[in-house]
Amino acid sequence: MHSLQDLGWSDFFASQLAEVLADPDVVVARVAEENREMFRLLSSQGEFMAEVSGKFRHEVTGRADLPAGWRLGPG
Fold first, then answer.
1. C-alpha to C-alpha distance for 35 and 43, rounded to whole angstroms
2. Can you tell me the distance from the alpha carbon of 24 to that of 48, in angstroms, rounded to the nearest whole number?
């Protein structure tokens, strides 16, 4: 498990996402690593591996379009 504060989470992010974070099914995670098609996410619930859909990967025009920083997803 990781503390969101240790990963760089701050009140700034929380205030920007207050409405979304009210949903108990939303998990906040930090993208820690990108390895071709897989992403390692760190959260207060643990560590997860994720991947983007084939359609999304096909539509990106460069690395800047790929997930980075903070992500929100279903718990």
1. 18
2. 18
- Enter the pTM of the model: 0.75
Indicate the burial class of 41 (C-beta count within 10 angstroms; 0-12, 13-18, 19 or more).
Answer: buried
Q: Which residues lie across from 35 on neighbouring strands?
A: 38
Beta carbons of 12 and 20 less than 8 angstroms apart: no
Instruction: Please report which residue ranges of 1-75 form alpha helices under DSSP H.
Output: 11-16, 18-21, 54-59
- CA-nearest of 17, 18, 46 to 32 is 46
Give the residue ranges of the chain where pLDDT is below 50. Answer: none
**pLDDT, position 16:** 85
For the record, the structure tokens of 20 come out as: 């979304």
